[in-house]
Design brief:
- Helix content is 21%, strand content 32%.
- By secondary structure, the protein is α+β, with helices and mostly antiparallel strands.
- The protein has a single domain, classed as Cathepsin B, Chain A (Alpha-Beta Complex), CATH 3.90.70.10.
- Strands 1, 4, 9, 13, 14, 15, 16, 17 and 19 form a nine-stranded mixed beta sheet that branches. Strands 3-2-8-5 form a four-stranded antiparallel beta sheet, with no helix packed on it.
- A hairpin with a 6-residue loop joins strand 14 and strand 15.
- It is globular.
């Protein structure tokens, strides 16, 4: 096993008990410029102030620092482990209560769920916003993403009621991007419920440094770049989180108060193989120096503000969002 080399170029975060998941998330958000700059420039309410104060310390302090102001603002029980993806969603929700959609827009993928009746070919659409896209664990992340976009047939007990046919029919369901996020967050579905227990899938996944993401029904694709991975190491009820982040073209590991150089990416390879990667952060190319949304980014409010063609699709379970749990 390769010996980890500590580095004093970065500042670590103290673990208050079981807050490794929060530390990994905060280190990642600190190195997400769109989020960090917005926090520092908009520090008005309690959570924004706590995050702004922490980010300023991370920029200047070379020793590990505490996160008590953040955990108090989030009302977190520091002696209870949480799922990092759930924590991320909760943090965005709390921020957006004070500033609707301002923070979530950075990460939100606006997805159109299209349902087509196989009998009469009538179509209905539901627009949904996801701050995290959840994908199944497969040997290649590209295969997981392809499965998400592939059409799914709902038949048998899963048939959907068609207003035009006035009966339940076999239905084709397809997801497409309506708006792409500046930062695409992908959660690998490593935790599954089996016989009233959660089990972890520790399969190795080949994760591309560059990820092609389709837009709408066109053949156009946006190439996203991987810049951070939040890892879950261990078992369901006894795991540990850390973050591996690309800083100044070098990968570094942030493990609570410790910071290490990381050699996960071998020179010449276009992929990173990992059995621990859980939450992936991909950034969009910066086409607009002003930071304004481009044509295929959010510029029309939340999905709740968009008019749905019909409500038929709302009865269909989201195929990409698992039930949440706590570890």
């Amino acid at each position: 096993m390769m010996r980890r080399v500590e580095t004093d170029n970065f500042c670590g975060l103290k673990n208050q008990g079981f807050t490794c998941y929060l530390n990994a998330l905060l280190q990642t958000l600190f190195r997400t410029p769109e989020f960090k700059n917005l926090i520092i420039s908009s520090s008005v309410h309690t959570l924004e102030k706590a995050l702004s104060k922490l980010f300023k310390k991370l920029s200047s302090n070379s020793s590990s620092i505490g996160t008590k102001d953040v955990t108090r603002a989030l009302k977190i029980d520091v002696m209870k482990q949480q799922d990092i993806a759930d924590c991320f969603r909760m943090l965005l929700n709390k921020l957006d209560k004070k500033a609707p959609s301002k923070y979530s827009k950075i990460f939100q993928s606006r997805v159109v769920n299209t349902l087509e009746c196989q009998d009469c070919h009538n179509t209905d659409e539901l627009v949904q916003d996801f701050s995290v896209i959840t994908l199944p664990v497969k040997p290649f992340l590209t295969d997981s993403l392809e499965e998400f976009w592939n059409s799914t047939t709902l038949d048998g007990q899963n048939e959907v009621y068609c207003n035009k046919c006035c009966k339940k029919t076999a239905t084709t369901m397809t997801y497409t991007f309506k708006c792409q996020p500046r930062v695409l967050v992908i959660q690998l579905k490593r935790f599954m419920q089996c016989r009233n227990m959660f089990e972890k899938d520790i399969s190795t996944v080949s994760i591309p440094l560059k990820l092609e993401v389709p837009y709408g029904n066109s053949k156009d694709k946006t190439i996203y770049s991987l810049y951070a991975m939040c890892n879950h190491i261990g078992v369901v009820n006894g795991g540990h989180y850390n973050a591996v982040i690309k800083c100044s073209e070098k990968w570094n590991e942030f493990d609570d108060k410790y910071c290490y150089l990381n050699c996960i990416h071998q020179s010449g390879s276009d992929f990173i193989s990992s059995s621990n990667a859980y939450l992936l952060f991909y950034k969009k190319p910066s086409d607009d120096a002003s930071g304004q949304p481009t044509d295929n980014e959010h510029n029309e409010g939340t999905a709740n503000e968009c008019k749905h063609k019909k409500k038929r699709a709302s009865i269909v379970k989201r195929k990409d969002q698992p039930s949440t749990h706590t570890r």
